[in-house]
Design goal:
The protein is mainly alpha-helical. Helix content is 75%, strand content 0%. The protein has 21 helices and no strands. The relative contact order is 0.03. InterPro entries: Vps53, Vps53_N. Keywords: Coiled coil. It comes from Paramecium primaurelia.
């Protein structure tokens, strides 16, 4: 509320604020202006209040109108809802009646269709009986197809008596039809059936409608009928022998020719009836031949192998013929379930029966092989002028192995071939043993022994290189699991033994010659040795012998095995020298110098006399080996020459280089005239000795 309710109050308040009369003169004009503005504001306020009142009245009337309208709408909605509920009940009632009518219509339609199909089935059964009786197999095939299709319609109702009755009638009819078809085909083979080729071809279509199982049964019956005369013929006593084997296969050739003449493409080609006939023939033949083999006490190897060879040839011919004839269907996913997809086992169907009875053949091959090895060993000659400086017997042996495997592969890829593989392994052992025996026997003739040992080393190298190829050939001639069991690593070791024996014999020969020279060395008084000059006589004699020995073997051995042997020889010479030095009681300074000179001379001449015609890595490797190996002799001589202090200082370095250091220590001390307690610093090496 305005604190100044009247102009008077306003003026009064102003006078209170400004009691001085003079101070009011200046604001009179302002007061008048304020009064004027206040009056105007009051007027405007009255107008706004009036307009607001008018607006409130109008809004109130509008709200009342809306309420009346809403009540009317709610009333109408309720009326519509009531009408909708009545309509829904009416529609539901109508739909229920329509649905009942629709179900009745469907049931009536299904019943009419089922009745029609049932009548068709009854008609089909009657016609089927009629056509089966008249052997009209083209119509029979069509009716079987139609009946099968109609039967699918009644699967859900198969327990209904009428359906059970008609299905039972159909099953009996099909059973009789199968027997009739088998009789027709058998009688046709006998020649007593007057049916035409076309009728039998239609019969084949009928057979397919009766299923794969019956088709196979029919073919089996036909095959047994065709093979039964053969079975009876060769069951007779006069034909129960291996000599009649080729006659068996001739009979089969005639029988299949007669079959083709009679049938004239009666059977569909994709049925592969020929395959089944051959398979039946093979099964009967296998049983009969097995009986023959079991009954024979003494098997004639020639007759046995002739029969087997004829059998293998027959199987191979059949297999090739069948592959070519049925190539169109083999190995393919055929939509036709009656088409052949793979051949029955023809190869081995008969010949496998021979396997358990081929021991006489293996024994025969063993006798011939061992005799061959003995003959080629006896005929060996050492042709040092020839290109191949090895024993010809080894090449002849492997050539025979190749022929043996080829011959045996004609008969078997399983147990027999595996036994032949064992036989070859036995022959390799025999050959190796015989060569080693010959090495021992050759020692009586020194010159011959050297050459023979070199030939043996080259022969062993050739055999080791040839054996992997022999093993691969064996594997190729064997089927699994036999092929997985071929292993010739032990046989390779036989030839390593041959090689080692030859090298050992050569080294024994060298030792027998050189030992006398070192005996001369031991007779020298090395403690009183004073005249140092050229190499000692024992070294000169040794070098002279080695020169002749290496010259003999140098042009015989292959480069790799020459170096291999020379390395062995260098090790032997080094050990021979060191062992001889250790046998000397005492050596003077000059004596030590002479021995060092001897070692140097030996190294130089070993490199010289072993030099190959052409410089190679092998030659350089050998030269390095000579220096490295004989350095042990040098080191021992230097240790003997050293003072105690130097010896104690340098021996650990020697021990790092040579494993023999602990055992060498006592011998070196003996030559230095020292005892263990004189060198306590080396106690750890004495511990190793102990």
């Amino acid at each position: 509320m305005n604190p100044y309710s009247s102009n008077f109050d306003c003026i009064k308040h102003i006078n209170t604020l400004f009691p001085n009369e003079q101070s009011l003169v200046g604001i009179d004009t302002e007061i008048e202006k304020l009064q004027s503005e206040l009056t105007q504001l009051q007027s405007e306020l009255q107008e706004d209040i009036h307009e607001h009142a008018v607006m409130q009245n109008k809004i109130w009337r509008d709200v009342q109108d809306v309420e009346q309208l809403s009540q009317g709408i709610v009333t109408e909605i309720q009326e519509i809802k009531q009408k909708a509920e009545k309509s829904e009940d009416l529609v539901y009632s109508m739909c229920k009646d329509i649905k009942s009518l629709d179900i009745a219509k469907r049931n009536l339609t299904f019943s009419i269709a089922a009745l029609k199909k049932f009548i068709m089935m009854l008609t089909a059964i009657e016609k089927l009986k009629e056509h089966c009786r008249d052997k009209k197999y083209a119509e029979v095939a069509n009716l079987l197809s139609a009946f099968t299709e109609l039967s699918q319609y009644f699967v859900k109702f198969q327990n209904i008596p009428q359906i059970l009755e008609i299905n039972g009638e159909k099953e009996q009819l099909i059973k009789d039809l199968k027997l009739q078809l088998i009789d027709d085909f058998i009688l046709f083979q006998k020649g007593t059936n007057l049916m035409q080729i076309k009728d039998l071809q239609d019969a084949c279509q009928t057979v397919e409608h009766l299923g794969l199982k019956f088709r196979d049964e029919l073919i089996q019956k036909v095959c047994k009928y065709i093979i039964s005369p053969y079975q009876d013929l060769f069951q007779q006593i006069e034909n129960r022998s291996l000599e009649t084997t080729e006659r068996r296969y001739a009979w089969m050739a005639r029988a299949i020719k007669d079959f083709d003449t009679k049938t004239q493409n009666v059977f569909p080609e994709y049925w592969a009836v020929h395959c089944q006939i051959y398979y039946e023939f093979c099964a009967v033949t296998r049983l009969q031949i097995t009986d023959i083999l079991e009954s024979l006490k003494d098997l004639d190897v020639a007759v046995l192998m002739k029969a087997l060879q004829a059998t293998l040839k027959f199987e191979q011919k059949l297999n090739d013929e069948m592959k070519k004839r049925y190539e169109e269907w083999l190995g393919k996913k055929n939509s036709n379930q009656f088409a052949i997809s793979e051949l029955p086992k023809i190869k081995g169907a008969i010949s496998d029966s021979f396997e358990p009875y081929l021991r006489p053949y293996i024994d025969s091959e063993e006798r011939e092989l061992m005799l061959h090895i003995q003959n080629i060993l006896n005929s060996d000659k050492l042709d040092v002028e020839g290109d191949l400086k090895m024993l010809n017997s080894s090449m002849s042996m492997f050539a025979y192995f190749k022929q043996l495997l080829k011959r045996a592969s004609q008969y078997s890829r399983t147990q027999v071939m595996f036994d032949i593989q064992k036989l070859i392994k036995k022959a390799l052992k025999r050959y190796s043993d015989e060569i080693i025996l010959k090495i021992n026997q050759s020692r009586n003739n020194e010159q011959h022994s050297q050459i023979f040992c070199c030939f043996v080393i080259n022969t062993a190298e050739y055999c080791k290189e040839t054996i992997p190829g022999l093993q691969e050939t064996m594997v190729q001639h064997l089927d699994s699991p036999f092929s997985d069991q071929v292993e010739l690593s032990n046989e390779e070791e036989y030839f390593n033994s041959m090689m080692n024996k030859s090298i050992e014999t050569l080294l024994i020969y060298v030792d027998s010659k050189i030992d006398q020279f070192y005996q001369q060395m031991l007779k020298i008084d090395w403690n009183e040795f004073e005249n140092m000059g050229d190499a000692s006589k024992y070294i000169r004699d040794t070098i002279s012998f080695l020169e002749g020995h290496i010259k003999t073997i140098k042009d015989i051995l292959s480069e790799s095995y020459l170096i291999f042997y020379l390395n062995k020889l260098v090790v032997y010479l080094n050990n021979k020298f060191i062992n001889s030095v250790f046998r000397i009681k005492k050596i003077s300074e000059i004596g030590l110098s002479q021995l060092m000179l001897d070692v140097s001379e030996l190294k130089t001449n070993l490199v010289r006399i072993s030099k190959l015609k052409q410089e190679s890595k092998s030659q350089q490797s050998f030269n390095n080996f000579v220096q490295k190996t004989l350095s042990r002799s040098d080191s021992i001589l230097k240790l003997i020459q050293m003072s105690i202090e130097k010896f104690v200082e340098n021996f650990p370095d020697y021990a790092k280089k040579y494993e023999s250091a602990p055992t060498d220590l006592d011998k070196i001390l003996g030559l230095k005239q020292l005892r263990r307690q004189d060198v306590p610093q080396l106690n750890k090496f004495f511990t190793k000795i102990n």
